[in-house]
Each structure stands twice: as C-alpha cells, then as structure tokens.
Amino acid sequence: MPSRLSSLSRSILALALTAFAAAGASAQDLKSFEQKITTKVLPNGLTIVICERPEAPVFSFSTFIDAGDVNDPSGQSGLAHMFEHLAFKGNSEIGTKDYAAEKVALEKVEAANDAYEAEYLKPVGQDPQKLVALKKAFKDAEAEAHKYVIQNEFWEVAERNGGTGINAETGLDNTMYFWSMPENRLELWAWLESGRLSDVVPREFYKERDVVNEERRMRTDSNPIGRLVEQFLATAYVAHNYGRSGIGWPSEVSQITATEAMAFHKKYYVGSNVVVAVVGDVKASEAMPMLEKYFSKVPGGPKPEEMTTVEPKQFAEKTVAIREQTQPFYLEGYHRPDYRDPDDAVYDAIGDIMSNGRVSRLYRSLVRDQQIAAAAQGFSPFPGDKYPGLFAFYAVPLPGHTPQEMRDAIHKEIDKIKTADVSDEELSMYKTRARADLLRGLADNQGLANTLAEYQTRYGDWRELFRQLDKVDKVTKADIRRVAGKVFVASNRTESWIETEAPKAAAKSGGAE
Amino acid sequence: MNSPLKFSLLLAISAAALAPAALHAQSKPWEKIPTPPLHDFKPQQPKRIQLKNGIVLFLQEDHELPFVSGSILIPGGSRDEDPAKTGLVGLYGDTWRTSGTAKMDGDALDDLLEAKAAHIETEGGSDSTGISWDSLKGDSDQVFSLAMDLFFHPKFSPEKLQLAQQQAATGIVRRNDDEGEIAGREAAKLVYGPKSPYTRQPELATIGAVTIADLNAWHDRTVGGKLIVGVSGDFDAVAMEARLRAAFESLPPANPTPARHETFSEAKSGIWFINKEDVNQSNIQIVGLGTDRHNPDVPTLAIMNDILGGGFASRLIQKVRTELGLAYAVGGGYGFGYDHPATFRVDVLTKSPSTVEATRASLAEIAALPAKGFTQAELKRAKDNILNSFLFRYDSREKVLGERVRLEFYGYPADYLETYRAALEKVTLDDLNAAAKKYIHPDKLSVLVVGNGPEIKPGLEELNLGPVQPIDITIPQPAPPQK
Lengths: 513, 483
Hints:
The complex is a heterodimer of chains A (513) and B (483). With 513 residues, chain A is an alpha+beta fold.
C-alpha cells in the first residue's frame, strides 16, 4: 500500500502508547521509573526531565514547546512551523561572521520587505515599475546580509559532534526538536539547545520561507491525499484552528515576515511553555546542575493565554468531493472531545477494536470478507489532541469499487459498535495490546524522551504515562456503546472522497506528436 | 498522542559542509566546551552457532524488557522469480502468513496472537524471504512453536492468495498517483533497464498468473537454503540454544546459495520526462550506476557522499536549499549495495518554474566533484560527521544482531564494521580526488523529471542534455473479464 496511508494511521500507534506498564513486568513499572527519572522546574519556568538509561554511551533529547500551528495568528498560518525552521539557523554566537554588522543588515532586509509588501498588497494603484525596484532593493539587502552568514553552522557543529537523527516537527498542538548524540557531548548540546531557545536571529528568513513553500508543494499540493486532507479539515471545522492548513495557506505562508516569527518566539518560547527531556547514559546528579546553568538563559514570562475558541457543535452533515485523475479514496470524521475527556481511553478502545491488525472489524469486514477495500481503519484524535479533534475513518477501495461503497460499509460497522456490545475477547485484546505497546516503547532513548516530554507538558507530570493504565483497565463494553452512540451520528459527520475522473480526451489529441 | 499532521525540517539526514572559513571575526564559544572521554563501551555480540548442516544461529540476550523476538532469513527473493510471474515473491510473503498451517489457519492464528499482543509475520523481499515473531516473554514458547509450525508446514490457501492478488492489484493501479513513487521507480529503470530483476514491476497480468502451485514450489525451493536464525530478548541462552538446535539440527545439509552472474552497465546519458499535470512541483532524479561494498573505495565514496549530499552542511543542501531556496528536499550520493551495484542518485524537488534552475544547480555540484576536488576542511568535517556518529550503528543489542545477520547473509566478515571504520579514518584528500575522477562521470548520468509539463518554463530543452525523451507510464490493462 502507498506508504502515506500508514502515516495517516500513525496516530493509532501513538495512541496505543497512551497506555501503560505491564503489571507483571517488574523492571518497567512506574516505581522503577521513579528511580531513574529526575525532574526539575527552573526559576524561569522551564522543566527538565532526565531519565537514566545507560545501555550505551549515548543520549537523546526532546525539547517540547507547548505551541504549534494552532497558535498561528490570523493571517499567518504556517508561522509556528516557519519559526521551527528558523531555530536551526543559529543565533548571535553561531552562524555569523560579525553579529553586530549582521544585525544592522537584517534590519534593512526587514524594512525592504515591508516596503515591497506594502506596494504588492495595494488594492488599487499598484505601480509595476516601483514593485520591480522594491523587489530589487529587497534582493540587494538580502545579499548584503548574506555576507555575514556562516551557512548552516549550527547544523555543522551538531553533525560533527555525532548528532544523529537531527530534526524537528511542528504539529498543530506543539513543536518538538530532537536528536541523539554521544554522551560526552551533553554539555555541547546544552549550549546549542539553550542558545537557540533563548537567542534567535531572523537569519536567511526569506530564503527559508521559499524552502517551506517547497515543503507545502511536496506534502499538500502535489499529493492527492494531502490535498484531500486539507479540504476535509477545512470543511469539518468552522471556528477552531484545527480546520486551518497547518503548513499554511499558500498566500499566508508565502507572506510571513521575520518580524512575525520573532514575535511568535517571544510569546511562546518562554520557560513555562518548554519541557526538555533527556534520556540515555546521563547521571542526573552531575547533569542537572550543568543543564540548569544553560537552560536558565531561556526567558521567563507568563504562560501564554489559552485559546478561547471552542468549535461549536456540528449540526449539519457535510461532504467534500474531489474529482480528479487519481485513484479513489474515502475519509470521514466525527467530532470528539480532547485528550482530557474522561472517555479518552474509550476512544482508544474503539480505534483499536475497529482498526488494529487483521483481527480488526474493518479489516475483517471490508478487506477479508466483502473484498471491497485494500485497507480500512479508524483513528483518533485527528488532527490534534490538545483541543477537540475528530474520530476519522478511511478506506482504500479495491479496483472497481467506489468511495460510496466504502462509506456504506464503514457505516455498517459503526452501527454494529453502536448497537451491540463488543466481545469480551475484543475488549481484553485492546487492554493487552495497549500494555505491550507501551512497554515496547520504553527501550528507545528518542521515543522515550519524546513521550516523557509530551506527558510532562500535557499532564504536568510524566507519571501519567504509566497511570493511563488505570483508565484503560476501566473501559467497559457499555462505555464503548455509549460513546459510539454519542459521537457517530450523521449530523456530527464530515465525509470526503476522491472520485476518479476520466482523462480529458480532447486535451490529449492536438495533432501530430 | 502524536498527530500525523506534522511538518518536519527535513526528509532524511545523515551528515557534511562548505566551510566559509577564513573571515571568522566571531569567537567560537562551543569550541571551549570540553569533550570528556566517552564512557567505555563494548557492544554485546550475539552468540553465533553454525550447525553441521550449514544453518547459522545467532542468540542475543537482552533482559531490559520482557519480550522475545526472532527471525529466519531465507536466501532468494523477487530478483530470482520468473519474470512472467513478477510479483510472485510479494504474494508469497503475504499469503504464507494469512493462510496459516494445516493445524491452524491464518485467521485463527490472528485471533490467538493478537489476544497476546504477539506477532508472527512473513515477508517476501528482493533478495530474501523470511518469517519473524515476537511476543511477551511468558508467551514466547508457544509463539515459537507456532512460528515453527508455520515455517515447516505452511498450507497456502487459494482464498488468501486471491486476497493478496487483489491488494497487489490495488497497488498497481495506484502506482502513478504519487509523484515520488513514479520518480523513484522510473529512475531505477533508467539505471538498470526496465527488465532488470531489480526494476521489473508486477503487472495485473503477472500477478494474475501466480498459482498456489507456484507458492508451494517457491517455498520448497528456498527453505532448504542456508538459513540464518536470529533470536533476541529476555531468554536464557542455554535453553534457547537447545530449542533452536532441536528445531534445525536435524534438517538436511543446506543448499548453497547459487553465485550470481549479472552484468551491469553504465546508465545512458540524456534527459527523460514524465508529465503529471496535478502537481506544482517537479521531482528531478539524476542517476547513474553505483557500486557494491566489496569495492575497496567504498570508505572514500562514503566520505565523498557526506560532502556532496549527506547532511545539512553538504554542498547540495548548502547550495540548492539554503542559498538558493529552491528545494525542501535535496540530497543524494553514490550508492553501494551488499551484493550488487546500487545506484548513484541525486534528487531534488522544486516548484515547476524553477525545474531547470534547480537541475542545473544540482548538476553543477556533481560536476564539481571531479572538476574542483575537495578541501582538507571538508575531509575533516566529513570524517567528524561519520566517525563521531559511528556508535549509533551499534548502540542497541537489536542493532548489533541485525548487523551480524546482514553480514552473515551477504558473506562479509563479522568484524566488517571495525575494518570499515579503520578505513574511513585513513581516507586522504588524494583518495577523495582520485575517487571523484574515477567514479563521477557527469556525462554518463541520466536525468529524469516528473512534473507538470505546461508549468515547466523555461523548458527542459534549455538544459542542453539532448532531446527530451518522454516515458510512457500507462498501466497495462489485461483483457476485461467476461461478464
């Protein structure tokens, strides 16, 4: 199957991780992790979590910012992601030949961009010649600033010192920076990481904006499923930013300014909004004082205010149909509550029973028995979990079958889960698999760092990772019916599909080749 | 909790850079940070046992988590299948597990395993097939027995073959939907030829021709080969060894893996184009023939790759992405396979109107390798990149086991990584310059562009790489079934 489908279902795997530790496994329970993990909140509000796992002389870190593209101001969609790219450009100490001179040059770049944009956005009376001149002035200013740049020096230092898996991800809910390194580079990493959190320079910003626009073309514009998902979310949501393009609408992401990115940093990259988790061959007693010294540089400041927008209750069933020359696909979604909802584990149970493996209901029904789909799954929450997301289902039709058949077959399975109890075997399978999946995730430094940072951020305590066990164990058959009956109703649904359009015969003719 | 809607900074990474050196007025505070000696570390090697019949066992104890996993690697894969039945090995890999055995069919196996959060899977690859299993420690005896039953007594089912054929058909009819998939596949064909065992593709007709008898014949033909069994996790090695011996010791002598007699030729120079009008970005592939790991120049080529397109400080990223802002995804290098030449490949994704500019910029970086050579600073940086991250090749017992199995499979010595590392350290600037001249032939590369023809302005003819040759990727349709 196309690999992009598996990325759609990745949330299921991640969700399964929302589980806990095996009761019988002595070395991997909460108590054993209490002994390995040290947590400290610095005076600036930043939280450091260290987990000692000296299996090999390496460590991984995860810097978790409680802000993502859902926080992009109106008209600036894609800003959080754009800032994430900027965070790899160095700061006043790294990536520059002469920061004092560069700073002046960068201010001129910003002024030149403002002048160009003011002319470009004029509703009437735009002067084409002036626009050309302003564009040239901007390019000249950019070239002048470029003279002071040591390109990708931040990367170079990280790579030369053994940095592996260097990357970052901006989601709608949060932004995460991560890599792994040999343990004797811990202090060097602390210098690099605390430096880019606390001291940002809008270096090469507009070139990087071009890069991000290429990323959009790759992930969304030039990918059939990418195009469908963007339209699907924009339709499912009327008020909340989950409906907005995460990577940014083309007109907005192509006009974000460095000033806007710096403002985003100032507001959201404050200590109280940051958790840094380190896992590996690290001794907390030695490392914590050193990390404290470096990460104290991150500015304090109030935790940014929470969003007031709440998606209103959906009362109109909606559909999105894309007709194009690609193969058919079906995707639908129902609004559900956020991760703090007492029924969060019930949604996980439904996702697992409907979708996980060859025993799942959707596989057995659509793929094995009816033989109408190559793959079919449900997953939640999508596209995020911090705010109320969707419970989504998708199916990939076999040749000759239509999205409408997928929809009807999925609805039949949904009706079953609403009207009849799941079996004891299904419920117990969910609980066993959730437990095993959590355990499997504990033997990987990077995965563990990401998970600890996320739980520390979302629950204020990494221990919740293990405590989820209780919630999973409490899920009952009646809970599943109750929640399914509440959420899977037509008025709460958005359906979307791709229908294959025949090639345009006329366009292909056109005489001799 | 992670949502799939995430945007990363880059697609894939490894490591390298252009030092703008000289005019560095700023101090470099990070250089003052001490790098203490690395903690002592001897990766635990698995225990290797060669049975009298030639089968090799690897046992890797790891008691961190209460799991046991294992696998059997079987020589022979899709590159060895009948071209008229291309796709057979893929169907075999799917059908083997879903069919199950005479004692327990695949559906019953699914129920039993999933209830224990355990897995047994089978797979068909290019040069091997295999079976793997994993479970919690408490279930490991039972899961091992089930895996052995499936290995020794499969019962291929016509219904499950049909299911696998339907799924494969879905993949075939969808293979032109994704631009990157088209580009990767068609670029490989330009290097190896469309009928090569490494590039020929399943068609509706070839997968339709596969029968249950074919699956049985393939199974019987391959399971007598030199098997490699690898087991890792929370077990007692003495007991596990006894278990594995009991299962495999009494088998007849393993058939030797036949030597391969394949010829590979350089790619043809020129430019090819595939039109896809629902995209706004071109996927450009610049490809040629690579080499294999027996080549003593591989350590030098690995360093050259790091400088060309490995990491963020590499020339391609520095120029095409960071300086020109033409691409999010750009990179590549000279590939080396274990038992056959891989490909040289540089790829770059750029908006339709900048296709020519990005192609030119990438070709210029390739041409500069033999023409301009390298600097000491680049060599030093590439070595730092590779050597300082080298331990991530063996920082878990699972990785150490995986590497040993791989080396055993392809017939490399067990100390290959150490030898390779020592050779990397010795690479000189002269080696690099000589390798670039020997291996990089800008006039022998194929350029493939997949993109939106009407939007590509200036057009590809501006590249002066000869006539633009269209590639037809229409999916062959077998005669419609009789109603």
